[in-house]
Amino acid sequence: MGILKVAGKVLLIPLWFIISIIGAGVKLLVHMVAIAKKILGLGIMALFIGTVICYQDWLQAAFLACMGGVLIFILFAGEFIDTVVDLVREKIGELILG
Fold first, then answer.
1. pTM for the whole thing?
2. How far is CA 38 from CA 2, 67, 68, 89, in A?
3. Cβ contacts of residue 21 below 8 Å, gap of 6+?
């Protein structure tokens, strides 16, 4: 029985490495999206203010506000996936060590 436990733990090690590599990629992607969101968010906010002041077109202003909301949602989804991958990696690490 003890041999099966050790074999199971040894088989989890490559999975832990794969999840760690995926986690590093997700973290990198989330940080890149955060930088892009800041740049695009600044541009969308400038367009929003310009649309309201110059044209007073509230339909286009609402569209720009929705675009800003989509940017925030994309960043939120990336952070959620990043957190899930970290939790899975930690759980596998606990199974290997425990």
1. 0.82
2. 53, 13, 10, 29
3. none
Q: What Å distances lie between residue 18 and 24, 66, 71, 73, CA to CA? A: 10, 37, 29, 27
Burial of 59 (0-12, 13-18, 19+ CB in 10 A): exposed
Condensed to tens digits (0 to 9), the pLDDT of residues 7-36 reads 888 889 999 999 999 999 999 999 999 999
Tell me what pLDDT residue 5 has: 84
Q: Which ranges of the chain does DSSP label H, i.e. alpha helix?
A: 2-50, 58-97
The first and second tokens of residue 78, run together, are 């990336």
